[in-house]
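User: Hi! I'm working on a homework problem where we have to compare a predicted structure to a textbook description. Could you give me the structure for the chain below?
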Amino acid sequence: MLKDRDIKITAEHPELEISQIVRGIVRRGLHPIAPKASISLRLDADVLEWFKARGRGYQTRMNAVLRAFKEASL
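Assistant: Happy to help. Predicted structure tokens:
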């Protein structure tokens, strides 16, 4: 069994952040997530502020709303 003292941290193999470890655990066995496209989008200022006012992750929430609309339109 590998001991902590036997693990060599280098620039090529840095120590992982806890978020990276959790992401790997959560994603195991699931289908890969397709990369997201970066776009420029014009929105009404009040709509953008409404999403931003709900805190971090506002772009993810906006994506979820658009996805729900897309799926409801099928």
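For your comparison, note the following. The chain has a mean pLDDT of 84. The radius of gyration is 19 Å. Good luck with the assignment!
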